[in-house]
Fold this protein.
Amino acid sequence: MLKTFSIGGIHPPDNKLAAQSPLQSLSPEGTVAIFLGQHIGAPAEAVVVQGDKVKVGQLIGKASGFMSANIHASVSGTVTAIEPVADIAGFKKPAVVIQVEGDEWMPEIDRTPDIKREITLDGPAIIKKITDAGLVGLGGAAFPTHVKLSPPPGKKAEAVIINAAECEPFLTSDHRVMLEYGEQALIGTLILKKALNAPKAYIGIETNKPDAIELLQGLVREHNYDITIVPLKKRYPQGGEKQLIDAVIHRQVPSMGLPIDVGAVVQNVGTALAVYEAVQKNKPLVDNSITITGKSAGKQVNMLVRVGTPLSKVLAAAGGLPEDTGKIICGGPMMGKAVVNIDAPTSKVSSAILLIPDSEAHRKEASNCIRCAKCVQACPMGLEPYLLTKQTQRSMYDELEANRAQDCIECGCCLYSCPAQIPLLDYIRLGKAEVIKIMRARKK
């Protein structure tokens, strides 16, 4: 019987329309704007000034603390400005703007296709390389990778779990990473395992990617890699950290707890590839794979895109916007964010550009709750979304905390399953923010 998590979940249509599209490299041109804050934690501090010449992979922003990450030039050229640039929501954030001139890389970066299998560095040296390279979790949270690899005193990693579920509808970039860089991702997994001195390593892959499962299982057998490939039942949100841990090693992360509390460290398969490139090839995080897709998209494309490339240029390279586009989503349809600024630059964690036709881009009018409890059945955290919504509407924050609104992972299962079309997630997100604010104030 296939493994999966034990509470709630849904299964929207896969819509993996770009699954057969190989990764294409988008050549850099024009200007790029590289945000100094592309991670959870404090923004990096610029170490370049206007007029500086930079190469691909050169440090341009230095981490300003432990919970921060270095930023590197994704192109070569001239720094034309260090100024606020609008993100996908239209909010301005500090960024380094570079005019592209050629494509010259830092000399220490190994760009050869040769696969380096031998891991010569010890744990601390691996973590230093990952820190220097500015790696963050590429599953969407952008948590600095070196922080996850540094468990607090008294905590021990017993298992590294690689998230290759890619459970969001439409997204296929992780799938292509496994098919085209599978062995490198496996070596990256072993590097993570060594850095944490963890006895076990697992890669969880949903069964709608049978070719990736077969390929990685074959590579594990061929090279005798100490990694277990775990086929998973198709179920959203299988890629959530807590759900993946439950599915793979059957441990439940406690309320407000972290994966390390049950001996697990979870990383995305794209992060595993980035770890390989950083440790074995000296390559900082300067590009990532992005799916450009949608039911009416002219092309279904997966691209390797340099960080800081304007979304408009990525879309143009994929055939442009269909006339019937009603909404553009950065990410998947369940947890992605609507784009209001098409000229916003991509970031380290940009995973997809989803084009929604106008006929599907509008919410239906909400009606009264019929107490069907479908939202309760769907919630993978075991919450009662209809109740949390009512308590948010009435500003009942003590009750919201008692009913664990702070544990909501904002996956959207409740909203998807509600026959009354009530915007449950919108209300719960508001209530959760207030509860967390109160909890933090109480700790202080």
